Amino acid sequence: MVFGSRTRALIARLGFPLVMASALAAAIWGMNRGVEPILAGVMVQLPSFLVVMALERLAPFHPAWNRNHGDLGVDIRHIVTVTLTSGIADPLLRGLGVVLGGWLLGGYALGVWPGQWPLAAQLALALVIGELGQYWVHRMQHEVPWLWRFHALHHSAPRLYWLNAARFHPLDILLNNFAATVPLVALGAGEDVLVLWVLFAAIHGIFQHCNVPVRLGALNWIFSMAELHRWHHSRRVVESNRNYGQNLIVWDIVFGTRFLPADREPPRDIGLTGLPNYPMTWLAQELAPFRWARAVEPPAEPSGGSRD
Question: Phi/psi at 102 (nearest 5 deg)?
């Protein structure tokens, strides 16, 4: 079963806003009734993921992207690796944030964050602040060669679908988490705000990479959603070195890297350029940054010699 054009149009316009708003509202509702913030976040993440998985089957953006390109097992392994990395690093990053906040702000660290604001407003502030660090980290991952060695893994995906949201090298994701978590904790953001920020990033990430026809119109000036991010996965560097926003596009607007041409659709042929031997298996991808010469060396000539 595949949805018709009218239903697809509704999904394109309303799918992301409705799922995100419902998930955040459910998490806030649970926390207000005594549910532990982390548990509340996890409980609403899973149904949101299932909704996106279903939408990819019922209303695919590119039907060919629903077929396994030999990447499904690799992406599942990357999910496990990234989840373990984040789980181990999170308390360390929060501890670093507390120390940094105390060092920079002294006794005022916990008084800087507007904890009296409604949770939704605190989340909006956290997104803007966290996004600034992540924007520059992401941009450097494209512009600094040794950082690109780690980030290339994410761009090696042969298609875009929801699991791409976790296709990262552990050191890549660690640097991204550092850029947002440490400043927020240093400023005194509470546990509930941090959980909502993680929840927002998780749901936004799967929609950002999903194989669903997302059409947000004016909201593309706020969120770094799929219409923008598909250009970021282009094989053309002039297009892929744009739209660095993880959740919001506001810093791309400020620094002049937002890219959403109106005269053509984003490319279907995505992936890496200039890395002819980049590996496509999980372990080899984890090791690729440390064996970079193998990824960039040109393919060997056929045994029969070159053709002129």
Answer: -65, -35
